[in-house]
């Protein structure tokens, strides 16, 4: 049994195995419907319990389909209907019940410490479905998407991020270190990554550069990532932050500084960080990106169950 909480704690050889398993499984499903099972149905009889303390559309749907296609089933808990959220039950007791009734737990949380606390008391795998500090299932899936579209390993590509230094970027930074790819980040100075992330970059890598100019970040890029300026539960002065990011809005002119065949990725939901024109252009691969989460999360589940081929 293995947990999937942060990319930085997972050996790259395992991350690679997840990606290649997802590729094989995706290829085998070309003619199947969403609810058709993979032939081997390796998680038959298994129950994934998922809980969202924050809103979600894609993660919820993609984990549901992922476990179903592997032969198992999913149950989604609403935190406000549990004793846990009202303080009437401890994480320890909740975790014990989850472990007795289910086979894996996927948690989207507003507090990183809860992931560790659950991990301590669960006897089933826990998957981080987004926390304030990371979004590892999204980024591993995005690496799959990049390599699928570009037909090259990610370390041969120039990756750029223009936008807020948030949970999604933190996972992209961890991925850059794990997979050894070049990453240029463009964001206003006052919104640079937090000190612990800066220290992590300094300690591990020299392939990540942070610019306060969006143009410098995107020059020569093969792939451009972005995300909302204001994340869910972001407790900042929103008007001030949105104002600082105005110069970082991704439009056709800015895209013109990247390579001609640069693709645009965005985990969604979107805000005002990208123009409609870029978002709906041929370069934008956001819908493929969203769908690929099903395939990669299936292999993440198999990794957690110790069933990767
Ligand atoms: N990208 C992503 O995680 O989307 P949701 O918040 O809708 O799950
Ligand atoms: N950074 C965003 C990602 C949403 C999938 C957030 O945390 O709201």
Can you walk through the features of this model?
The chain is of the alpha/beta class. The two termini are 15 Å apart. The chain folds into two domains: 7-135 and 293-304, Aspartate/ornithine carbamoyltransferase (Rossmann fold, 3-Layer(aba) Sandwich), CATH 3.40.50; 138-289, Aspartate/ornithine carbamoyltransferase (Rossmann fold, 3-Layer(aba) Sandwich). The protein contains twelve helices and nine strands.
Please give the domain count.
2
Poorly predicted segments: none
Task: Round the mean pLDDT to the nearest integer and report it.
Answer: 97
CATH class of the largest domain: Alpha Beta
Question: How would you describe the oligomerization state of the chains in this entry?
Answer: single chain
Helix-strand string: HEHEHEHEHEHEHEHEHHEHH
Total number of helical segments? 12
Determine the CATH topology of the largest domain.
Rossmann fold
Note the beta-strand portion.
5-15%
Each distinct ligand: phosphoric acid mono(formamide)ester, norvaline
Quick one: how many beta strands? Answer: 9
> What would you say the CATH architecture of the largest domain is?
3-Layer(aba) Sandwich
* Through-space gap between termini: 15 Å
Largest sheet: 5 strands, parallel
**What is the name of the CATH superfamily of the largest domain?**
Aspartate/ornithine carbamoyltransferase
Strand order of the largest sheet: 7-6-5-8-9
**Overall geometry:** globular
